[in-house]
HTH-type transcriptional regulat or YobV (Micromonospora noduli), 230 residues
Amino acid sequence: MNRTDRLYALVEELRAVSPRPRSARWLAARFEVSSRTIERDLGALQEAGVPIWAEPGRTGGYVLDRARTLPPVNLTAAEAVAMAVALHRLAGSPFAGPAATALRKLVAVLPAADAAEAHRLAGRVHLIGDGPATPVPATVADAVAARRVLRIRYADRAGADSTRDVEPLGYLGNSRHWYLVAWCRLRDELRCFRTDRIRSVGALPDVVARELRLTDLDIPHERVRPLSLV
C-alpha cells in the first residue's frame, strides 16, 4: 500500500471506531509498517486539518472526530467540475475564499484516478468574466467528458442549418453563453458552436484524439482563464 492510500485508509479506520481510540502500535500492525511511520502519517493528517487527537494513558491512542469529517466522497469528474463552475460565479463575493477551500477539500478526498480525470476535464473548460447561464445539452456534455465525436445540426446567426461532424475539445463560456469548442470536420478547422444554436446532437463511436490548448483560441489570453480545481 502506498502512502497516499495508507493516509486515506488511516482516516477511515479511525472514523469506523470513533470515538474509541486506536494505538499507534495497533495501527502499525494493521498496515504492516512501523509505529514511527504511523505517527508521521498521523502528524501529516493533523497538519492537513484532519481532526485527530491523541488520548494519553495505557488505554489511550488516536481518535478522529467523525462529526467534523466527511465519509468517502464519490464525486464523479463531471460533478467536481460542475461544482467548480458554480463556485466560479462567487468570484468577488465574501464567500469566494471559503468556496475555493471547500472545493479543494472535496477534490483532495477523491480517489487519485477520479481526481486526475476531474483535473483533465476542468482543463477543457475556459471562462470569460463571470461565466455563462445558457444550458449545455446533456449529449454535448457527455461527449466532451467521454471524448466522443458528435454529429450536430447547427443554426448559424442567420438561422440557416447545417449538419456537421465535430470533435469536442472543450467549452468556452462568457457572461451570456456556453460555446462548444470543437474541430469541425466540415470546415477542417477549430470552431466555436454556441450551444443554444445546436438543434440536434448525436454521439458517434469515433474517439477524439486532439487536445485543446489555450493558444488555439483566437481571444486575447488575458481575457480567458482555464477552470481550476485548486
In short: Strands lie at 52-55, 61-64, 125-127, 148-155, 161-173, 178-184, 189-194, 198-207, 225-226.
